[in-house]
Amino acid sequence: MALELRYTIILAQHGLEALAVLAERAVDLVLLDLMMPVLDGEAFVAEARRLGLRVPIILMSAGTDLRLKSQALGAIDFMQKPITLAVLEAKIDQAVAAAILVS
Fold it and tell me: What are the pLDDT digits (tens) for 4-35?
């Protein structure tokens, strides 16, 4: 809710729902949890890529080897849980600024 003051937030409960959102509208960034029901983060990325959906992803997880998983999945960044609001906002700001520079 704190992010809603600065960004338009679209929530998805699981990977399939997130894919449906991406099919309907363009987004600037995906904050992706690896451990989701129905379709986990790794399967979400594989399916999104298969469908040709290209969107910057910041990976989030409480799991181990997050740096390696992030690189393997092509994420632009990652965050180890628990995540503070300040770190989350900084990572989002960096990703959005980088996307603007590339545009």
Answer: 888 899 999 999 999 999 999 999 999 999 99
